[in-house]
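Q: Fold this one first, please.
A: Sequence and structure below.
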Amino acid sequence: MFKQRLLSGIVLVVLMVVILYFGGYVTGAAMLLLSLGGIFELLRIYKLHNTLLGCAGYVVAVAYYILLFTNLREYILFMFIIAILVILGIYVFAYPKYTDKDIMAVIFSFFYVAFMLSYVYEIRTLKHGGILVIMIFICSWVNDTLAYCAGVTMGKHKMSPKLSPKKSVEGLIGGLFGAAIVGGVYGYFLDKYVYEINNSILVFAIIGFLGAIVAVIGDLTASAIKRNNDIKDYSKLIPGHGGILDRFDSIIFTAPVIYYLIMLMIK
Protein backbone atom coordinates (compact mmCIF):
# COMPACT_ATOMS: atom_id res chain seq x y z
CA MET A 1 0.00 0.00 0.00
CA PHE A 2 2.78 2.43 0.95
CA LYS A 3 4.76 1.63 -2.21
CA GLN A 4 1.68 2.16 -4.37
CA ARG A 5 0.92 5.45 -2.63
CA LEU A 6 4.53 6.60 -2.99
CA LEU A 7 4.74 5.76 -6.71
CA SER A 8 1.44 7.40 -7.58
CA GLY A 9 2.43 10.41 -5.47
CA ILE A 10 5.67 10.79 -7.43
CA VAL A 11 3.81 10.53 -10.74
CA LEU A 12 1.30 13.12 -9.54
CA VAL A 13 4.04 15.56 -8.53
CA VAL A 14 5.82 15.13 -11.88
CA LEU A 15 2.56 15.77 -13.77
CA MET A 16 1.85 18.90 -11.74
CA VAL A 17 5.38 20.21 -12.36
CA VAL A 18 4.95 19.76 -16.11
CA ILE A 19 1.47 21.30 -16.09
CA LEU A 20 2.56 24.34 -14.10
CA TYR A 21 5.81 24.75 -16.05
CA PHE A 22 4.01 25.22 -19.36
CA GLY A 23 1.32 27.45 -17.84
CA GLY A 24 -1.27 29.11 -20.08
CA TYR A 25 -3.79 26.83 -21.72
CA VAL A 26 -1.95 23.73 -20.48
CA THR A 27 -2.48 24.71 -16.84
CA GLY A 28 -5.99 25.98 -17.58
CA ALA A 29 -7.04 22.80 -19.40
CA ALA A 30 -5.61 20.66 -16.58
CA MET A 31 -7.57 22.63 -13.96
CA LEU A 32 -10.73 22.28 -16.06
CA LEU A 33 -10.29 18.49 -16.28
CA LEU A 34 -9.60 18.28 -12.55
CA SER A 35 -12.67 20.43 -11.91
CA LEU A 36 -14.92 18.22 -14.03
CA GLY A 37 -13.54 15.13 -12.31
CA GLY A 38 -14.03 16.67 -8.87
CA ILE A 39 -17.59 17.75 -9.68
CA PHE A 40 -18.31 14.22 -10.93
CA GLU A 41 -16.98 12.72 -7.67
CA LEU A 42 -19.04 15.09 -5.55
CA LEU A 43 -22.26 14.70 -7.54
CA ARG A 44 -21.89 10.92 -7.49
CA ILE A 45 -22.34 11.05 -3.72
CA TYR A 46 -25.77 12.56 -4.28
CA LYS A 47 -26.52 10.30 -7.28
CA LEU A 48 -26.64 13.28 -9.64
CA HIS A 49 -23.50 12.59 -11.68
CA ASN A 50 -25.31 11.10 -14.71
CA THR A 51 -28.50 13.19 -14.62
CA LEU A 52 -29.56 16.22 -16.64
CA LEU A 53 -29.09 18.35 -13.55
CA GLY A 54 -25.58 17.02 -13.10
CA CYS A 55 -24.76 17.70 -16.77
CA ALA A 56 -25.80 21.31 -16.19
CA GLY A 57 -23.09 21.50 -13.51
CA TYR A 58 -20.45 20.25 -15.97
CA VAL A 59 -21.59 22.75 -18.63
CA VAL A 60 -21.37 25.63 -16.17
CA ALA A 61 -17.78 24.65 -15.31
CA VAL A 62 -16.79 24.51 -18.99
CA ALA A 63 -18.47 27.86 -19.72
CA TYR A 64 -16.70 29.46 -16.77
CA TYR A 65 -13.27 28.27 -17.91
CA ILE A 66 -13.94 29.40 -21.48
CA LEU A 67 -14.56 32.91 -20.15
CA LEU A 68 -11.26 32.71 -18.25
CA PHE A 69 -9.34 31.44 -21.30
CA THR A 70 -10.78 34.14 -23.58
CA ASN A 71 -10.19 36.86 -20.96
CA LEU A 72 -13.90 37.75 -20.82
CA ARG A 73 -14.03 37.94 -17.04
CA GLU A 74 -16.54 40.81 -17.11
CA TYR A 75 -19.19 38.30 -18.23
CA ILE A 76 -18.58 35.79 -15.44
CA LEU A 77 -21.18 37.22 -13.05
CA PHE A 78 -23.76 37.29 -15.86
CA MET A 79 -22.88 33.68 -16.66
CA PHE A 80 -23.44 32.72 -13.01
CA ILE A 81 -26.93 34.27 -13.11
CA ILE A 82 -27.83 32.45 -16.34
CA ALA A 83 -26.44 29.18 -14.92
CA ILE A 84 -28.58 29.42 -11.79
CA LEU A 85 -31.66 30.22 -13.88
CA VAL A 86 -31.02 27.20 -16.12
CA ILE A 87 -30.50 24.90 -13.13
CA LEU A 88 -33.68 26.19 -11.50
CA GLY A 89 -35.49 25.77 -14.82
CA ILE A 90 -34.51 22.09 -14.90
CA TYR A 91 -35.67 21.78 -11.30
CA VAL A 92 -39.06 23.33 -12.05
CA PHE A 93 -39.88 21.61 -15.35
CA ALA A 94 -38.69 18.20 -14.17
CA TYR A 95 -40.48 18.48 -10.82
CA PRO A 96 -40.69 16.36 -8.68
CA LYS A 97 -37.72 14.42 -10.07
CA TYR A 98 -35.22 16.67 -8.27
CA THR A 99 -35.35 18.21 -4.80
CA ASP A 100 -34.18 21.56 -3.53
CA LYS A 101 -31.22 19.76 -1.93
CA ASP A 102 -30.20 18.46 -5.37
CA ILE A 103 -30.17 22.03 -6.68
CA MET A 104 -27.98 23.15 -3.81
CA ALA A 105 -25.62 20.18 -4.38
CA VAL A 106 -25.08 21.08 -8.05
CA ILE A 107 -24.50 24.79 -7.37
CA PHE A 108 -22.22 23.96 -4.45
CA SER A 109 -20.21 21.47 -6.52
CA PHE A 110 -19.39 24.16 -9.08
CA PHE A 111 -18.27 26.78 -6.57
CA TYR A 112 -16.54 24.32 -4.25
CA VAL A 113 -14.53 22.59 -6.98
CA ALA A 114 -14.38 24.44 -10.32
CA PHE A 115 -14.47 28.04 -9.13
CA MET A 116 -12.02 27.59 -6.23
CA LEU A 117 -9.63 25.38 -8.21
CA SER A 118 -9.50 27.89 -11.09
CA TYR A 119 -7.33 30.12 -8.92
CA VAL A 120 -4.39 27.80 -9.58
CA TYR A 121 -4.68 28.94 -13.21
CA GLU A 122 -5.25 32.55 -12.12
CA ILE A 123 -2.04 32.61 -10.07
CA ARG A 124 -0.10 30.98 -12.91
CA THR A 125 -1.17 33.79 -15.28
CA LEU A 126 0.30 36.49 -13.01
CA LYS A 127 3.72 37.99 -13.56
CA HIS A 128 6.18 35.52 -12.00
CA GLY A 129 3.21 33.16 -11.77
CA GLY A 130 5.40 30.09 -12.26
CA ILE A 131 7.23 31.03 -9.07
CA LEU A 132 4.24 32.20 -7.06
CA VAL A 133 2.06 29.17 -7.80
CA ILE A 134 4.50 26.94 -5.89
CA MET A 135 3.23 28.53 -2.67
CA ILE A 136 -0.06 26.68 -3.13
CA PHE A 137 1.75 23.37 -2.79
CA ILE A 138 3.95 24.56 0.06
CA CYS A 139 0.80 25.51 1.98
CA SER A 140 -1.00 22.27 1.15
CA TRP A 141 1.25 19.30 0.40
CA VAL A 142 4.35 20.44 2.34
CA ASN A 143 2.15 21.45 5.26
CA ASP A 144 0.39 18.07 5.16
CA THR A 145 3.69 16.16 5.08
CA LEU A 146 5.25 18.12 7.94
CA ALA A 147 2.05 17.89 9.98
CA TYR A 148 2.13 14.10 9.54
CA CYS A 149 5.79 13.92 10.64
CA ALA A 150 5.18 16.14 13.68
CA GLY A 151 2.05 14.19 14.57
CA VAL A 152 3.78 10.82 14.38
CA THR A 153 6.77 11.92 16.47
CA MET A 154 5.13 14.26 18.99
CA GLY A 155 1.36 13.96 18.65
CA LYS A 156 -0.44 13.52 21.98
CA HIS A 157 -3.52 15.74 21.83
CA LYS A 158 -6.29 14.99 19.33
CA MET A 159 -7.21 17.96 17.14
CA SER A 160 -10.61 16.74 15.95
CA PRO A 161 -11.34 13.28 17.41
CA LYS A 162 -14.71 12.77 15.73
CA LEU A 163 -13.80 14.14 12.31
CA SER A 164 -10.16 13.13 11.90
CA PRO A 165 -8.94 11.04 14.87
CA LYS A 166 -5.39 10.62 13.50
CA LYS A 167 -4.68 14.36 13.40
CA SER A 168 -3.14 15.98 16.47
CA VAL A 169 -2.68 19.50 17.78
CA GLU A 170 1.08 18.97 17.65
CA GLY A 171 0.81 17.92 14.03
CA LEU A 172 -1.27 21.01 13.26
CA ILE A 173 1.32 23.32 14.83
CA GLY A 174 4.18 21.51 13.10
CA GLY A 175 2.46 21.80 9.73
CA LEU A 176 1.62 25.50 10.12
CA PHE A 177 5.04 26.62 11.26
CA GLY A 178 6.73 24.18 8.88
CA ALA A 179 4.90 25.75 5.95
CA ALA A 180 5.85 29.21 7.23
CA ILE A 181 9.53 28.25 7.49
CA VAL A 182 9.62 26.58 4.07
CA GLY A 183 7.78 29.58 2.63
CA GLY A 184 10.33 31.94 4.18
CA VAL A 185 13.24 29.90 2.83
CA TYR A 186 11.57 29.88 -0.58
CA GLY A 187 11.24 33.67 -0.38
CA TYR A 188 14.94 33.99 0.51
CA PHE A 189 16.00 32.24 -2.70
CA LEU A 190 13.51 34.25 -4.79
CA ASP A 191 14.62 37.62 -3.46
CA LYS A 192 17.25 38.15 -6.17
CA TYR A 193 14.90 37.14 -9.01
CA VAL A 194 11.62 38.89 -8.18
CA TYR A 195 12.32 42.56 -7.59
CA GLU A 196 8.67 43.49 -7.02
CA ILE A 197 8.64 41.70 -3.67
CA ASN A 198 9.89 43.65 -0.65
CA ASN A 199 10.83 41.67 2.48
CA SER A 200 10.30 38.45 0.52
CA ILE A 201 11.26 36.19 3.44
CA LEU A 202 8.60 37.68 5.70
CA VAL A 203 5.99 37.90 2.92
CA PHE A 204 6.32 34.27 1.89
CA ALA A 205 6.48 33.10 5.52
CA ILE A 206 3.18 34.87 6.26
CA ILE A 207 1.58 33.49 3.09
CA GLY A 208 2.86 30.02 4.02
CA PHE A 209 1.38 30.22 7.52
CA LEU A 210 -2.01 31.66 6.54
CA GLY A 211 -2.30 29.40 3.52
CA ALA A 212 -1.58 26.36 5.69
CA ILE A 213 -4.43 27.30 8.05
CA VAL A 214 -6.83 27.35 5.12
CA ALA A 215 -5.37 24.07 3.80
CA VAL A 216 -6.26 22.36 7.09
CA ILE A 217 -9.83 23.65 6.82
CA GLY A 218 -10.02 22.34 3.26
CA ASP A 219 -8.75 18.93 4.29
CA LEU A 220 -11.22 18.67 7.16
CA THR A 221 -14.10 19.88 4.97
CA ALA A 222 -13.51 17.05 2.51
CA SER A 223 -13.34 14.60 5.43
CA ALA A 224 -16.58 15.95 6.89
CA ILE A 225 -18.44 15.49 3.59
CA LYS A 226 -17.18 11.89 3.36
CA ARG A 227 -18.23 11.12 6.93
CA ASN A 228 -21.67 12.66 6.40
CA ASN A 229 -22.15 10.31 3.47
CA ASP A 230 -20.37 7.22 4.88
CA ILE A 231 -17.69 6.90 2.19
CA LYS A 232 -13.95 6.27 2.59
CA ASP A 233 -12.69 7.86 -0.63
CA TYR A 234 -14.29 9.99 -3.32
CA SER A 235 -13.04 7.57 -5.99
CA LYS A 236 -10.13 5.25 -6.80
CA LEU A 237 -8.69 7.38 -9.61
CA ILE A 238 -5.30 7.88 -7.93
CA PRO A 239 -3.97 4.56 -6.56
CA GLY A 240 -3.25 4.80 -2.86
CA HIS A 241 -4.65 8.33 -2.61
CA GLY A 242 -8.31 8.05 -3.60
CA GLY A 243 -9.95 10.55 -5.89
CA ILE A 244 -9.32 14.10 -7.05
CA LEU A 245 -11.10 15.55 -4.03
CA ASP A 246 -9.07 13.32 -1.72
CA ARG A 247 -5.78 14.62 -3.09
CA PHE A 248 -6.68 18.21 -4.00
CA ASP A 249 -8.99 18.99 -1.06
CA SER A 250 -6.58 21.43 0.58
CA ILE A 251 -5.49 22.99 -2.73
CA ILE A 252 -9.11 23.83 -3.53
CA PHE A 253 -9.24 26.06 -0.44
CA THR A 254 -5.66 27.31 -0.55
CA ALA A 255 -5.50 28.56 -4.16
CA PRO A 256 -8.00 31.46 -3.92
CA VAL A 257 -6.69 32.59 -0.53
CA ILE A 258 -3.09 32.67 -1.76
CA TYR A 259 -4.16 34.54 -4.89
CA TYR A 260 -5.66 37.36 -2.83
CA LEU A 261 -2.78 37.35 -0.34
CA ILE A 262 -0.45 37.84 -3.31
CA MET A 263 -2.62 40.69 -4.57
CA LEU A 264 -2.54 42.28 -1.10
CA MET A 265 1.10 41.76 -0.14
CA ILE A 266 3.04 41.85 -3.41
CA LYS A 267 3.23 44.85 -5.68
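Q: Good. Now the second chain.
A: Here it is, same layout.
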Amino acid sequence: MAVTLSVVVPVKDEAENVAPLAREIATAVAGHEAEIIFVDDGSSDGTPERLVALKAEIPNLRVIGHGANRGQSRAVRTGVRAAHGDVIVTLDGDGQNDPADIPKLLAKFAAGDDRLGLVGGVRARRQDTASRRLASRIANSVRQSLLHDGAADSGCGLKAFRREAFLALPYFDHLHRFLITMMIREGYGVAFVDVNHRPRLHGKSKYTNWRRMLVGIDDLMGVRWLQRRMRGKTEAKEL
Protein backbone atom coordinates (compact mmCIF):
# COMPACT_ATOMS: atom_id res chain seq x y z
CA MET A 1 0.00 0.00 0.00
CA ALA A 2 1.33 3.44 -0.93
CA VAL A 3 1.70 5.69 2.11
CA THR A 4 0.31 9.23 1.78
CA LEU A 5 0.31 10.22 5.47
CA SER A 6 3.02 9.78 8.09
CA VAL A 7 2.40 10.47 11.77
CA VAL A 8 5.66 11.23 13.59
CA VAL A 9 5.81 11.06 17.39
CA PRO A 10 9.03 11.93 19.27
CA VAL A 11 9.25 10.24 22.67
CA LYS A 12 11.61 10.00 25.61
CA ASP A 13 10.84 8.03 28.78
CA GLU A 14 7.11 7.68 28.05
CA ALA A 15 6.77 3.92 28.64
CA GLU A 16 3.35 4.24 30.28
CA ASN A 17 1.95 6.56 27.62
CA VAL A 18 3.07 5.11 24.29
CA ALA A 19 0.72 2.11 24.02
CA PRO A 20 -2.57 3.97 24.54
CA LEU A 21 -1.32 6.84 22.38
CA ALA A 22 -0.32 4.55 19.51
CA ARG A 23 -3.72 2.86 19.61
CA GLU A 24 -5.52 6.22 19.54
CA ILE A 25 -3.43 7.34 16.57
CA ALA A 26 -4.15 4.10 14.71
CA THR A 27 -7.89 4.69 15.22
CA ALA A 28 -7.67 8.34 14.13
CA VAL A 29 -5.90 7.53 10.82
CA ALA A 30 -7.74 4.29 10.04
CA GLY A 31 -9.32 5.81 6.93
CA HIS A 32 -5.99 6.93 5.46
CA GLU A 33 -3.04 5.21 3.80
CA ALA A 34 -0.91 6.01 6.80
CA GLU A 35 2.15 4.95 8.74
CA ILE A 36 2.87 5.75 12.39
CA ILE A 37 6.49 6.50 13.28
CA PHE A 38 7.60 6.71 16.89
CA VAL A 39 11.12 8.05 17.33
CA ASP A 40 12.61 7.08 20.67
CA ASP A 41 15.13 9.72 21.72
CA GLY A 42 17.40 7.77 24.06
CA SER A 43 14.83 6.53 26.61
CA SER A 44 16.00 4.63 29.66
CA ASP A 45 12.65 3.38 30.97
CA GLY A 46 11.68 0.66 28.50
CA THR A 47 9.83 2.92 26.04
CA PRO A 48 11.36 1.35 22.89
CA GLU A 49 10.59 -2.18 24.13
CA ARG A 50 6.94 -1.24 24.71
CA LEU A 51 6.75 0.18 21.21
CA VAL A 52 8.37 -2.79 19.49
CA ALA A 53 5.92 -5.09 21.28
CA LEU A 54 3.04 -3.11 19.75
CA LYS A 55 4.14 -3.74 16.16
CA ALA A 56 2.30 -7.07 16.06
CA GLU A 57 -0.91 -5.29 17.07
CA ILE A 58 -0.45 -2.21 14.85
CA PRO A 59 1.06 -3.33 11.51
CA ASN A 60 1.69 0.20 10.21
CA LEU A 61 3.72 1.14 13.31
CA ARG A 62 7.42 1.86 12.82
CA VAL A 63 9.90 2.39 15.65
CA ILE A 64 13.17 4.29 15.20
CA GLY A 65 15.65 4.74 18.04
CA HIS A 66 18.36 7.29 18.75
CA GLY A 67 21.44 5.87 20.47
CA ALA A 68 21.48 8.89 22.80
CA ASN A 69 19.19 11.76 23.71
CA ARG A 70 19.41 14.47 21.05
CA GLY A 71 16.29 16.51 21.69
CA GLN A 72 12.78 16.79 20.32
CA SER A 73 13.64 18.64 17.12
CA ARG A 74 16.23 16.05 16.15
CA ALA A 75 13.72 13.26 16.82
CA VAL A 76 11.10 14.98 14.64
CA ARG A 77 13.68 15.44 11.88
CA THR A 78 14.67 11.77 12.08
CA GLY A 79 11.04 10.74 11.72
CA VAL A 80 10.33 13.09 8.82
CA ARG A 81 13.43 11.96 6.93
CA ALA A 82 12.38 8.32 7.37
CA ALA A 83 8.74 8.98 6.44
CA HIS A 84 7.16 7.84 3.18
CA GLY A 85 4.13 10.14 3.26
CA ASP A 86 3.88 13.47 1.47
CA VAL A 87 2.01 14.91 4.46
CA ILE A 88 3.41 14.69 7.98
CA VAL A 89 1.48 15.01 11.22
CA THR A 90 3.42 15.47 14.45
CA LEU A 91 2.20 15.27 18.01
CA ASP A 92 3.83 15.04 21.42
CA GLY A 93 4.44 11.65 22.99
CA ASP A 94 3.03 12.45 26.43
CA GLY A 95 -0.60 11.95 25.41
CA GLN A 96 -1.65 15.58 25.96
CA ASN A 97 -2.29 16.14 22.23
CA ASP A 98 -5.50 14.38 21.17
CA PRO A 99 -5.09 12.12 18.08
CA ALA A 100 -8.82 12.53 17.42
CA ASP A 101 -7.95 16.04 16.17
CA ILE A 102 -5.76 14.71 13.33
CA PRO A 103 -8.66 14.56 10.80
CA LYS A 104 -9.47 18.18 11.64
CA LEU A 105 -5.95 19.28 10.69
CA LEU A 106 -5.99 17.18 7.52
CA ALA A 107 -9.34 18.64 6.45
CA LYS A 108 -7.96 22.16 6.84
CA PHE A 109 -4.91 21.11 4.89
CA ALA A 110 -6.97 19.58 2.07
CA ALA A 111 -9.06 22.75 1.81
CA GLY A 112 -5.96 24.87 1.14
CA ASP A 113 -3.96 25.29 -2.06
CA ASP A 114 -0.41 24.33 -2.99
CA ARG A 115 0.97 27.34 -1.13
CA LEU A 116 -0.29 26.04 2.22
CA GLY A 117 2.68 24.45 3.91
CA LEU A 118 1.52 23.91 7.50
CA VAL A 119 -1.58 23.70 9.68
CA GLY A 120 -0.89 24.26 13.35
CA GLY A 121 -3.01 23.26 16.31
CA VAL A 122 -4.00 25.85 18.90
CA ARG A 123 -4.74 24.47 22.35
CA ALA A 124 -8.00 26.21 23.21
CA ARG A 125 -8.10 25.02 26.83
CA ARG A 126 -4.65 24.28 28.17
CA GLN A 127 -4.49 21.46 30.73
CA ASP A 128 -1.24 22.69 32.32
CA THR A 129 -0.36 24.31 35.60
CA ALA A 130 -1.15 28.01 36.07
CA SER A 131 2.55 28.86 36.11
CA ARG A 132 3.13 27.09 32.80
CA ARG A 133 0.15 28.78 31.17
CA LEU A 134 1.40 32.17 32.36
CA ALA A 135 4.92 31.48 31.13
CA SER A 136 3.52 30.41 27.75
CA ARG A 137 1.47 33.60 27.39
CA ILE A 138 4.50 35.73 28.16
CA ALA A 139 6.71 33.77 25.79
CA ASN A 140 4.17 33.97 22.95
CA SER A 141 3.80 37.71 23.48
CA VAL A 142 7.56 38.24 23.32
CA ARG A 143 8.00 36.09 20.22
CA GLN A 144 5.14 37.86 18.43
CA SER A 145 6.76 41.23 19.07
CA LEU A 146 9.91 39.95 17.35
CA LEU A 147 8.81 37.41 14.75
CA HIS A 148 5.31 38.57 13.69
CA ASP A 149 4.37 35.08 12.48
CA GLY A 150 0.79 35.00 13.80
CA ALA A 151 1.46 31.93 15.96
CA ALA A 152 -0.81 32.13 19.00
CA ASP A 153 0.40 28.77 20.32
CA SER A 154 3.86 27.94 18.99
CA GLY A 155 4.33 25.20 21.61
CA CYS A 156 1.51 22.95 20.42
CA GLY A 157 3.06 19.74 19.12
CA LEU A 158 0.07 18.86 16.93
CA LYS A 159 0.86 20.07 13.40
CA ALA A 160 0.37 18.92 9.81
CA PHE A 161 2.82 19.96 7.11
CA ARG A 162 4.27 19.03 3.74
CA ARG A 163 7.31 16.78 4.03
CA GLU A 164 9.11 18.55 1.19
CA ALA A 165 8.51 21.92 2.86
CA PHE A 166 9.96 20.72 6.15
CA LEU A 167 13.06 19.32 4.46
CA ALA A 168 13.65 22.68 2.76
CA LEU A 169 13.99 24.44 6.14
CA PRO A 170 17.36 25.14 7.76
CA TYR A 171 17.79 22.74 10.66
CA PHE A 172 18.71 23.77 14.22
CA ASP A 173 17.91 22.38 17.65
CA HIS A 174 14.49 23.58 18.90
CA LEU A 175 13.33 24.05 15.29
CA HIS A 176 10.03 22.39 16.25
CA ARG A 177 9.06 25.54 18.16
CA PHE A 178 9.67 27.76 15.12
CA LEU A 179 8.20 25.69 12.30
CA ILE A 180 5.52 28.29 11.62
CA THR A 181 8.06 31.11 11.37
CA MET A 182 10.36 29.08 9.13
CA MET A 183 7.53 27.99 6.83
CA ILE A 184 6.53 31.62 6.31
CA ARG A 185 10.18 32.50 5.71
CA GLU A 186 10.26 29.96 2.87
CA GLY A 187 7.14 31.45 1.29
CA TYR A 188 4.59 28.88 2.44
CA GLY A 189 1.19 29.74 3.86
CA VAL A 190 0.15 28.63 7.34
CA ALA A 191 -3.27 28.07 8.92
CA PHE A 192 -4.53 27.23 12.40
CA VAL A 193 -7.28 25.14 13.98
CA ASP A 194 -8.38 24.83 17.60
CA VAL A 195 -7.53 21.45 19.12
CA ASN A 196 -8.12 19.58 22.34
CA HIS A 197 -5.52 19.46 25.11
CA ARG A 198 -5.49 16.79 27.80
CA PRO A 199 -3.82 16.44 31.20
CA ARG A 200 -0.75 14.24 31.36
CA LEU A 201 -1.73 10.89 32.91
CA HIS A 202 1.73 9.41 33.52
CA GLY A 203 5.25 10.73 34.00
CA LYS A 204 6.32 14.35 34.08
CA SER A 205 7.34 17.04 31.62
CA LYS A 206 10.94 17.09 30.38
CA TYR A 207 11.00 20.90 30.44
CA THR A 208 10.85 23.58 33.12
CA ASN A 209 9.74 27.19 32.66
CA TRP A 210 13.25 28.39 33.53
CA ARG A 211 14.89 26.08 30.99
CA ARG A 212 12.45 27.09 28.27
CA MET A 213 13.18 30.77 28.91
CA LEU A 214 16.95 30.38 28.78
CA VAL A 215 17.03 28.49 25.47
CA GLY A 216 14.13 30.53 24.09
CA ILE A 217 15.94 33.86 24.22
CA ASP A 218 18.90 32.51 22.29
CA ASP A 219 16.63 30.80 19.75
CA LEU A 220 14.54 33.92 19.20
CA MET A 221 17.60 35.97 18.33
CA GLY A 222 18.81 33.28 15.93
CA VAL A 223 15.43 32.93 14.20
CA ARG A 224 15.09 36.70 13.91
CA TRP A 225 18.48 36.75 12.20
CA LEU A 226 17.34 34.02 9.79
CA GLN A 227 14.24 36.05 8.95
CA ARG A 228 16.35 39.07 8.00
CA ARG A 229 18.64 36.95 5.81
CA MET A 230 15.90 35.65 3.48
CA ARG A 231 14.84 37.42 0.27
CA GLY A 232 11.74 35.32 -0.26
CA LYS A 233 10.75 32.18 -2.09
CA THR A 234 11.89 31.84 -5.70
CA GLU A 235 10.00 29.91 -8.36
CA ALA A 236 12.64 28.18 -10.48
CA LYS A 237 12.15 26.51 -13.84
CA GLU A 238 14.45 24.85 -16.28
CA LEU A 239 14.95 26.80 -19.51
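Q: Anything worth noting on the second one?
A: DSSP finds eight helices and seven strands in the chain.
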